[in-house]
What does this fold into?
Amino acid sequence: MTASSEAPQVAAPRSRNPLSPKRPQGAGSKKGNRGIQVFLAVVALVWIFPVAYAVLNSFRDYAYTSQHGYLSFGGFTLANYKNAWEQANFSHTMLNSAYITVPAVVLTLFLSACVAFVVARFSFKFNLALLGLFTAANLLPPQALLIPVYRMFRAIEVPFWFSDSGTLLNSYWGLILVNVAFQTGFCTFVLSNYMKTLPRELYESAVVDGAGVLRQFFQLTLPLCRPPLAALATLEVTWIYNEFFWATVLLQSGDKYPVTSSINNLRGQFFTDNNLVAAGSVVIALPTLIVFFLLQKQFVAGLTLGATKG
Amino acid sequence: MSTSTTPDRTTPKPAGPKPAKLKRSKYKGIDHLSPVDRVVVSVMIGVPTLLVLWLVVVPAVGSVLLSFTNWDGIGPISSAKVVGLQNYKDVLTIYPPFVPALQHNLIWLAVMFFIATPIGMFLAILLDREVRGSRVYQTAIYLPVVLSLALVGFIWQLIYSRDQGFINQVTGGSIDWYGDTRYNLWAALLASSWRHVGYIMLLYLAGLKGVDPTLREAAKVDGANERTTFFKVVFPVMFPINIIVLVVTVIESLRAFDLVWVINKGRNGLELISTLVTSNIVGEASRIGFGSALATFMLVISSIFIVIYLRIVMREQR
It folds into this structure.
């Protein structure tokens, strides 16, 4: 697979199917296709069931379901959402998630774009080694790095205006930096593949006109990279919002927990009431479900771009 | 803004004939770097690289080094003594959860590799035939991929819980699927597979769409049926994707953490290496050297697969 065959996938997000143009139907028997259709429909229903079940029961009254069982129908209410929202302190944790996710995604994309630009624009000897380093960093199991990171963060003192804990441990910025360090590899990889498909003549005319590297990057490369940046932004927002491990171990006071890490406490809190669990799940899933329904093309493009090329 | 107009923005405005001419005469090829450019390039590369070195590479090396010491994490690090392989010996001999954790990790890997991944690939092959409604089915199957594994564990509680869970409501049973050590690993695996299948399906489908259609045409002309075409033609040309799917599966299995941590912090039949490392550090007893030996196990296993992955991927980069 050549690099140039990849570019159109993100370059044309408006095409109906982001994965590829439609292939002409094989002359496979109509009967076989009908069988496949039924099979896939059943699988799809099974797959959607846990989420659908959660959504359904999130709207049901606990007293009703405990009397009639979950297989009944009725007892609809919005109270679970109100209770879940208040008990889980979602207004607080959602804000924490935003504090972490937004800077982390912006920084990740910016830093990866920088590295990708240099790697794609110049042919330095260290390019391949650099890409390798970043990609490997992306794949290492985070638990294996926990001890030194935890110890370093605990030892590094920062001013109080930077973090009220006085150290990088238990601070938003410590967590943001870890997320950035882990996610940069993937984004660099995708972006550098895309940037390599940009014609070099563009740079030629820019250099002839006296544009330095910085201007080439900001005024030429970045604007042209909007499609992959949009795809990656979608993907990274989802991933960093979903990040659980680092937030759990690096932010030890519950008041800084983002939504995903707060799940750990909710299980104990909600355990007697499954309808509350359901409502909580739907609230937690909401940002990612919005991505799923509105930005599906971007999400799939980002994921498959990274994967089919690495 | 269309791509063709963008380059024009970099053209300096013709302020006067002098500067344009001056710069033109200085043109030394597009890879020539002025002193300022050199600094810019160094910073662009240097800052992200330092960040990754600091937060990924140094900790990885640190974990390995600490695993040879007896540091308790309380005194200064200079008080730690080198104890050689003692921590590894302890992990293998006097640490009961280790063997179950290793077994669980292997079971996890086996289920993902032999069951979830093939199901995902199979679904991708069916979806690739583009029967009516393919897009809708595809969307439904990859829905769990946008959810975090922690949330997956949480949502499946609705199905598994003893008193109110869907399974027990339907069967009238009273099994605590997440609590009973006989079942909870399998319950967690089912929930995890639910997400993994969608992920693999998406990756594989993208790979299948990238296969040159003329290959299939040629196979058909030669009289190959669909099964032969897939195994003899499509599967071999998808070698890179197959490797990537393999590595993704291994890495994800090794990283499996969030789901079991949400269920019960990796105890009572749900021990995994990753949860042991975490409880040894964050929990009540912080045994740094010991925990690092566990971490080093993870590093070594994952490094093998990361190297395979890099070799495949970097070959395409050249």
